[in-house]
Amino acid sequence: MSRKEKAVIIGGGISGKLAARVFSDFFQEVIILERDQEPEGPFPRKGAPQGEHIHALLQAGEFGHEKLFPGITEKFYSTDAIKINSTKDLAWFHHGVWKLRFDGEYTTTLQSRPHLEWHIEQFIKKIPNVTVLYNQVVKNYLYNEEENRIVGVEKIDDISSIKTLTADLIVDASGVSSLSTSWLNKRGIHIPDEKVQIGLSYISKSFQLPESPARDWAIKIVYPNPPHEKIGGTISKVEGNRYIVTLSGYHNEVNEKQVLKINSGFIELTKKLPNLDIYQEIKDASPLSSTSIYRVPHIIWRKYEKVKNLPDGLLLIGDTLCRIDPVFGQGMSIAILEALVLKKLLQDHRHTHPKITTTFHKQAAKIISPIWNMVITEDFRYPETTGRKPYGLFIQQWYAKNIFLLSSQNQDIYNSFIQVMNLVRPITILMLPRILKSVLKRAFSR
User: Fold this and answer.
1) pLDDT tens across 383-431, in order?
2) Selection from 204, 177, 202, 183 nearest residue 323 by Cα
3) Homologous superfamily of 4-83+111-194+299-376 in CATH?
4) Which stretches within 79-225 are classed as H helix?
5) Burial of 69 (0-12, 13-18, 19+ CB in 10 A)
6) At what angle do helices 59-68 and 14-23 cross, to 10 degrees?
7) Where are the chain's structural domains?
8) What is the pLDDT of residue 45?
9) Spatial distance between the Cα atoms of 196 and 191, rounded to a whole number of angstroms
10) Cα dihedral sign for 384, 323, 45, 120?
11) Low-confidence ranges of the chain (pLDDT < 50)
């Protein structure tokens, strides 16, 4: 593909930065339009309220980051991020049982989202043909109706001045509440979607934990056992020798006002988890932050690959395409996998820009589809969950439940499950004959 002049990216979050890194190799100029002000360090920002809660960079995401930003993993570790063994240093209470712990082949990096995003930002700023403009609000698209092509944006800058910016390609990485959806709907362009109501609340707080020789984990997950349990929690060590605790409640199970009303509200909420492990860890800990709340009423997958009259010159990526249930920690890694697919398409000289956007949306759907199906299979364990149920839901839930329970006693099965959860192997590996045999043996022996 011949080198084009300019790409404009709406949104300077993780997916926007990833897109900028990819396009920097194929465009003379790449401009990121970011709504927030320029960050002064690895701190939470207004445009990413989810930043104060636990995030996970899965193995596939870690590999992808290193491909796009060589050396970034060492930067994480040199600034206090935590490298753990994915099966030895994780204590996971899941569907009523503790998973096995053993010295496995995969590692995970524990760090806060602001820490991760700050380091990506530093790499981006070193790319000479990438410019980040802060305090920019995109209000409209510039549209050539005759060619059915978006040719630029209309934006308001930090001094409230309205300006236009033209480009060969516009990338919408602004997230779930993007301009593209409303803009297209106003023009009668229908975007098929799948929406699942989960009524999720995230409640987080950072702590300094007292030293304990008995603490043999770096991250501990206490997952609810649906449908009768709706509140779960995770405590994770991050940079700065601190721990982030994130509690999650499905279908508005958490009384957020009550949690915020009294100083002990957060601690009291940990007593409602399926076991008291997290409560025991933080009951004598020193709080380092206030309590933060983030709500995800629904998850949504907008199927832009099915929009036949989508204007040329517009590409969508990250949460703009799909916001997935954050409890499963796969959102950032999906964005990285999308960026790698985009890079591969741009490297293919046979593609023109219109063909790239169409092909990319189809390829992104192939990334999202199995992950979406895996996640909503779990979300639909709650009868209050509404939306389109996947085909064969009961069988999928039955099979997955057996995998979860076998992960507490069968190292091979748990290792395969970890590979799937880390997006390094397809879910089909859980259907291999030896695993299927173990599932059937467990089921029928009971």
Assistant:
1) 999 999 999 999 999 999 999 999 999 999 999 999 999 899 999 999 9
2) 177
3) FAD/NAD(P)-binding domain (3.50.50.60)
4) 113-125, 179-186
5) buried
6) 40
7) 4-83+111-194+299-376, 196-297, 382-445
8) 83
9) 16
10) positive
11) 1
